[in-house]
């Protein structure tokens, strides 16, 4: 990992391998370590850039963010600045998991000319319902007193396939550990940002980029039916459903996810 200076802020980033650049954008409230099963596999043939978004992992956040929130657009602009700081002017494949997918869609909107491909894993393009938005604001307002470990406890029941807690308990423990060490201010900031994110379904119709959607067959957060609707809306896209996986498919079934990613990247890089 190294710390990259973006001007107004710094981001911690892993930059490994060479070839077509692949920007891995983690979910909420996680950090780049959620990609640990993808990084080495992809870096054998590609340049993997896996940052910690503002406030997550080892990347800092300013204290006002918990109150103001960080918009998905702002995380996306950080990523564009990161590519500048890394002197990357060639097309990049952006691969966002869940909240990372919301960021990827804003990157597409604002910096789309920098992209050579789009991958959304266990994510969605629709905005929140009013109920979901209210739950995010409740968490943003209370996380400081609840503590991050409580957030991990609240989230954990919906994260996995039914069989994962028994078959891969270490994955559940790892998820809880990452969330528990996340700064409550960053959790509040991202929840406010996600609550305010725009609906991007219309954007998909106009997509001209090679696009891959990946979803765990038992995802209870980004439902396979929702991702199927996204794929139907996106010209020429592919949808891969991953068995033995819920929302955390990159950790629950890394072999299945890596196969889809590598096939997509191999096709792109010709
Ligand atoms: C994530 O995994 O990033 C979150 O489940 C996204 C969300 O809360 O919508």
Structural class: alpha/beta
Oligomeric form:
single chain
How many E-type strands?
8
Please state the overall shape, judged from the principal axes of the Cα atoms: globular
**What's the Cα radius of gyration?**
17 Å
Mean pLDDT: 97
Helix content: 40-55%
**Which blocks of ≥5 consecutive residues have pLDDT under 50?**
none
Distance between the termini: 29 Å
Number of helices: 13
Beta content comes to 15-25%
Keywords, please?
single chain, 270 residues, alpha/beta, eight-stranded mixed sheet, 13 helices, 8 strands, binds D-malate
Describe this structure in words.
The protein is of the alpha/beta class. Helix content is 47%, strand content 17%. It has an eight-stranded mixed beta sheet with strand order 1-2-4-3-5-6-7-8, sandwiched between helices. Helix 5 runs antiparallel to helix 9 (184-195). The chain is globular and about 50 Å long. The structure holds D-malate. The site of D-malate (MLT) has 6 residues, from loops.
Describe what is shown at a glance.
The chain is of the alpha/beta class.
Give the topology, please:
Layout: E1 2-5, E2 10-16, E3 21-25, H1 36-43, E4 47-51, H2 65-68, H3 72-85, E5 92-97, H4 99-111, E6 115-121, H5 130-146, H6 148-156, H7 164-167, H8 169-180, H9 184-195, H10 201-205, E7 211-216, H11 224-233, E8 238-242, H12 249-252, H13 254-269
Parallel strand pairs: 3-4, 3-5, 5-6, 6-7, 7-8
Antiparallel strand pairs: 1-2, 2-4
The chain binds D-malate.
D-malate (MLT) binds next to loops.
């Amino acid at each position: 990992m190294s710390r990259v200076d973006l001007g107004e802020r710094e981001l911690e980033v892993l930059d490994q391998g060479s070839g077509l650049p692949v920007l891995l954008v983690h979910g909420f409230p996680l950090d780049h370590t959620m990609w640990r099963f993808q990084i080495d596999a992809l870096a054998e043939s590609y340049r993997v850039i896996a940052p910690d978004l503002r406030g997550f992992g080892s990347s800092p956040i300013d204290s006002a963010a918990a109150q103001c929130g960080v918009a998905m657009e702002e995380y996306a602009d950080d990523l564009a600045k990161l590519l500048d700081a890394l002197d990357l002017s060639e097309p990049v494949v952006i691969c966002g998991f869940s909240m990372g997918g919301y960021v990827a869609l804003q990157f597409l909107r604002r910096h789309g000319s920098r992209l050579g491909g789009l991958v959304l894993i266990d994510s969605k393009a629709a905005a929140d319902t009013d109920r979901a938005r209210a739950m995010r604001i409740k968490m943003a307002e209370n996380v400081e007193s609840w503590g991050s470990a409580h957030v991990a406890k609240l989230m954990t029941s919906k994260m996995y396939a039914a069989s994962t807690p028994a078959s891969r308990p270490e994955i559940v423990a790892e998820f809880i550990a990452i969330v528990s060490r996340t700064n409550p201010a960053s959790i509040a900031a991202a929840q406010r940002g996600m609550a305010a994110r725009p609906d991007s379904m219309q954007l998909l119709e106009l997509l001209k980029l090679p696009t891959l959607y990946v979803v765990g067959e038992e995802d209870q957060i980004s439902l396979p039916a929702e991702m199927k609707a996204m794929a139907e809306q996106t010209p020429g896209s592919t949808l891969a459903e991953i068995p033995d996986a819920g929302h955390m498919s990159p950790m629950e079934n890394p072999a299945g996810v890596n196969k889809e990613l590598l096939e997509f990247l191999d096709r792109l890089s010709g």
